[in-house]
Specification:
The complex is a heterodimer of chains A (396) and B (392).
Chain A (H helix, E strand, L loop, with lengths): L10 E4 L5 H11 L3 E6 L13 E2 L2 E2 H5 L4 E5 L5 H12 L3 E4 L5 H4 L4 H5 L6 E6 L14 H7 L20 H24 L3 E6 H8 L1 H6 L9 H4 L9 E3 L2 E6 L5 H11 L11 H4 L9 H12 L4 H10 L3 E4 L3 H5 L2 H5 L3 E6 L3 E6 L4 E2 L17 H7 L3 H8 L1
Parallel strand pairs in A: 1-2, 1-6, 2-5, 6-7, 7-8
Antiparallel strand pairs in A: 3-4, 9-10, 10-11, 12-13
Helix pairs in contact in A: 1-7, 7-8
Chain B lengths: L8 E5 L4 H11 L3 E6 L5 H5 L3 E2 L2 E2 H6 L3 E5 L5 H12 L3 E4 L5 H4 L4 H7 L4 E6 L14 H7 L21 H24 L3 E6 H7 L2 H10 L16 E5 L5 E5 L6 H7 L14 H6 L1 H12 L4 H10 L4 E3 L3 H4 L3 H5 L3 E6 L3 E6 L4 E2 L17 H7 L6 H6 L1
Parallel strand pairs in B: 1-2, 1-6, 2-5, 6-7, 7-8
Antiparallel strand pairs in B: 3-4, 9-10, 10-11, 12-13
The chains are: A alpha/beta (396), B alpha/beta (392).
Chain lengths: 396, 392
């Protein structure tokens, strides 16, 4: 079964829009599941995220919707609701982000579906969690980042807020949703029981910031990067003559350290206790890294980034250039790992994307289908489900 | 009630954050996680401040839901014990520098011979092939390398690091958990284990899939935009009359009329420059000053009332002191307080998922290195003959 995926044979009905749910179901599709993306007649709203658009499709949409079939159903019509419920009742997994209570209005609530399918795994995604005063509140990437204090680790105190540029609230939550579904599928394989699972974007980000909550419980003192970072200035890496880098010293010896200090002309560091222990507390996440950064940068100013990186590596430290996307995407390491792949899309042509992350030796993840055009598989999927006659009736 | 991973044992040979956070989540799902550490543990996990009662918060926070055993894998007697635990385990997770685990004689080739059903997860910073094969990395080095600082920062300013230096670590951890669960499903169907490899770099790039897509489409580096989203508008922070910032996110076209009504800018609803999201993104520089000026004219509280009525996503910039008692956080157990055996009462991250039938958790503090050595060996029926070994 060398070409088989771990999720072959599972069918997922995906009612979600935007980035979170679609990123979740894309990962299930990568694993081999058949993913049916049910879209309203106007399409998933992420089809209108942009510019940029390629061949009439949103680049953002393309990046989170491979390995899916698109079926258009209007849940405002009785036919649409009936067809959706039929698909959902026959599925292994349903994923929805309608908001608490809203799925019931469409006849797609868990209680409504499980009567016809005891083995169903039903995943609900909300912005803030299903309990509490904000259970019905709508969210957005920035709103969730702001409320989870993500912006407290960026920018400068008193300045306008800065968000994480990546879509972490939605995409990280998509992965947690995939986990919950996989865990429930594993349980079903062992017990025969389906169940309902739920994740939220707010809860996901607060989970991922967990080290912070521990740190502030009762620290012995207020230092260390988890605490200092609230008041530290923006960190743009270490500047050199020709660009920024980032480095950490951790495996040095006395001999290596002396050589580094001499080559950089930093003899003053030898008498500075903040550089004790071969500079281990003086870089990266070390206690004194922020305050001694100007000393490093003064030494780096007359040297190239490549020189410093080689020097640090020669004493067992880690050093990398700070990269932008053009340098990243063409980097030989990214190429060696085959991280960028491409799909052939009906209108966008060959479009690049990041491959599935995990590499399995046996049940491999794969990209089998490009992101779908809106409604591209409506007839195929509804026909196979015996809903064709219903379609005709409806259109009369 | 039964938990999902009841009966699944994890041999945890993990360091720092990436591996430990993953096995902590497997533990929360019910797996019996045995964390194996060399005497004294790894320096990174135990020495990084801040500390609580002398222990690193990194170590404490990433090692809940586990039992701790100390084994010096460079010694034959300890290694023999490890192999016996491996025989009785289902999942092997390690995130050592590539090559290090093979030097300990615990690479996949060895482990899969002892236990063909083993799901063996090897995580690294940059993988085992390519010009950077074998290089180690931690969250900030991967942040620097993976391009994400270039899309984060003030508008027209320099790109910057996310100073919560664990997000890409834990992103990788969650990818590990997902892959392990997939492999467990596969094993349930095929009876066989397998090797899974994950790089932090790939996980970090997958997390940027939407932003990399902009680059692939245009060939242009996306610039830092402060708090603003690149492909939806208006979706950013606005300063209000009371100098507070309010996060507002209009991501869907159906939210736009309500947003205009909330701001009493009804004339914008029919303004052709702003009729759809792509138009609003294209005309961002015309749109934002109009909206920003209006929002600056009243306090944030007023706009929150009006935006909530119209169901337009909005929210304040909160801090830990507000979050830990926030009724939404408390109601959903997003942050919880637990008692720990060594460190007193702690605020910890709540679980990221809810299962209706098979409850996950409760979160239980791990322990100090080696704390459960005797208990684990007795339970697994493994005779600890290392003292005899020493006397030879």
């Amino acid at each position: 079964m060398s070409n088989a995926g771990s999720l072959d044979g599972f069918r997922v009905i995906d009612f979600t829009q935007g980035l979170c749910g679609p990123f979740c179901t894309m990962q299930l599709g990568d694993g081999g599941a058949e993913v049916i993306k049910v879209e309203p007649p106007g399409g998933d709203f992420s089809r209108r995220m942009g510019p940029p658009f390629v061949g009439g499709e949103s680049a953002v949409f393309l990046s989170v919707n491979r390995n899916k079939k698109s079926v258009v159903l209007d849940l405002e019509t009785s036919y649409g609701r009936e067809a959706a419920a039929r698909l959902a009742r026959d599925a292994d997994v349903v994923v929805e982000d309608f908001g608490p209570g809203a799925s019931e209005r469409f006849g797609l609530g868990y209680a409504q579906l499980r009567g016809g399918n005891q083995k169903l795994i039903y995943c609900s995604i909300t912005p803030f969690g299903e309990e509490g005063p904000l259970r019905d509140a709508p969210g957005s990437e920035l709103v969730v980042q702001a409320m989870a204090e993500y912006t407290a680790s960026l920018g400068r105190i008193g300045d306008a807020p800065v968000r994480v540029g990546a879509d972490v609230a939605t995409l990280n939550t998509g992965t947690f949703a995939a986990q919950a579904i996989l865990a429930a599928l594993f349980h079903r394989l062992r017990s025969g029981e389906g169940q309902r699972v739920a994740v939220s974007e707010f809860g996901s980000l607060l989970h991922m910031r967990g080290i912070m909550w521990h740190s502030m419980s009762d620290p012995d003192d207020w230092y260390g990067f988890h605490l200092d970072h609230y008041t530290n200035p923006p960190d743009c890496g270490y500047q050199t003559k020709n660009g920024a880098l980032y480095f950490i010293l951790r495996r040095g010896s006395s001999e290596d350290w002396d050589r580094l200090v001499m080559e950089l002309g930093m003899e003053e560091a030898l008498a500075d206790p903040r550089f004790n222990d071969y500079g281990r507390a003086a870089t990266s996440i070390g206690r004194y890294a922020t305050e001694v950064k100007p000393i490093w940068e003064k030494a780096f100013a007359s040297r190239t980034r490549e020189e410093i990186i080689d020097l640090v590596k020669s004493m067992g430290g880690d050093a990398v250039p700070m990269m932008d996307y053009p340098s990243l995407v063409s980097h030989p390491q990214v190429e060696a790992l085959g991280i960028i792949t491409q799909v052939d899309h009906p209108t966008a042509g060959y479009f690049k994307m990041v491959r599935p992350v995990a590499r399995f030796s046996e049940t491999k993840d794969s990209i089998r289908m490009p992101p779908p055009l809106l409604g591209q598989h409506t007839e195929e999927v509804l026909g196979a489900a015996g809903l064709t006659r219903l379609t005709r009736t409806d259109s009369q | 009630m039964a938990k999902i991973l009841d009966g699944i044992r994890v041999f945890d040979l993990t360091l720092a954050a990436v591996g430990p956070w993953a096995t902590k989540l497997l533990g929360a799902l019910g797996a019996d996680v045995i964390k194996v550490e060399a005497p004294g543990g790894d320096r990174l996990s135990h020495a990084v401040p801040p500390m609580i009662k002398g222990n690193s918060v990194l170590y404490i926070s990433a090692n809940h839901n586990k039992r701790m055993i100390e084994l010096d894998l460079k010694k034959e007697a300890d290694r023999a014990i490890a192999l016996k635990i491996i025989e009785k385990s289902d999942i092997f997770v390690q995130n050592m520098r590539p090559g290090a685990v093979e030097r300990l004689g615990l690479g996949y080739a060895v482990v899969s011979k002892i236990n063909p059903r083993m799901i063996y997860l090897a995580a690294s910073a940059y993988g085992r092939i390519g010009p950077m094969a074998g290089e180690s990395g931690i969250d900030p080095t991967v942040q620097a390398f993976c391009g994400w600082c270039g899309i984060t920062g003030p508008e027209h300013g320099r790109g910057e690091m996310f100073r919560h230096l664990a997000h890409l670590d834990i992103t990788t951890s969650t990818t590990i958990v997902q892959a392990v669960l997939q492999a467990l499903i596969a094993r349930e169907r095929t009876g066989r284990g397998q090797l899974i490899e994950i790089e932090m770099l790939t996980a970090a790039m997958a997390l940027q899939t939407t932003r990399l897509a902009e680059y692939f489409a245009t060939g242009q580096q996306p610039a830092p935009l402060g708090s603003a989203a690149a492909t939806t508008a208006p979706h950013q922070a606005f300063e209000c009359e009371d100098d507070r910032y309010l996060a507002i996110g209009v991501e869907r076209d159906e939210q736009w009329p309500g947003f205009c009504r909330a701001l009493k800018l009804d004339e914008l609803i029919s303004d052709p420059r702003f009729a759809t999201n792509p138009l609003r993104v294209t005309h961002r520089t015309e749109l934002i000053p109009i909206v920003g000026e209006r929002l600056k004219s009243k306090p944030a509280a007023w706009w929150m009332i009006r935006l909530n009525k119209e169901r337009v996503p909005n929210g304040p910039f909160l801090t830990f002191e507000q979050l830990r008692a926030h009724s939404q956080v408390v109601a959903n157990d997003h942050i919880i307080e637990i008692d720990t055996p060594h460190w007193g009462s702690m605020h910890v991250d709540g679980l990221p998922w809810k299962f209706e039938l098979t409850p996950s958790g409760p979160i239980r503090a791990g322990g100090k290195p080696g704390e459960h050595t005797a208990e684990i060996l007795a339970e697994l029926g493994i005779v600890d003959d290392r003292r005899a070994d020493v006397s030879k």
